[in-house]
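In the current project phase, the collection of sequences with tokenised folds has grown. One resulting record follows, to show the layout:
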Amino acid sequence: MTENRIAPRFATTTDGGVVTVRCAGDLDLATTSRLREVLLGPFADGARGVVADLTETTYCDSTVFSVLVEAYREALAREIPYAIAAARIAVARPLAILGLDQVLPLHLGLAEARAALDGTSASRVS
């Protein structure tokens, strides 16, 4: 990437046992270890649910998609609800091209992802 790179930022919040992991900026191989740590940590810590908020992600590469799949597998193994908010084309389009939109629990926005964990109706990215 060039000097136009947007610095990655990670933040977590917890509400009612559901952990939202906000991932913003450009995510790539250099950020994969940190992403894995913040995204998989809540599963091991006993979260009631996990939302990966990628609504402010401006770029991501295939290593990020691998972490999203890894988190999905962890959620299934631990039977913990998991959703991904990925409205930006930088995330949603590559996932669709790879067919991962048919496998991963993708949603248009954070509210929709949270609603999906609660079992209410939500808009999936398709």
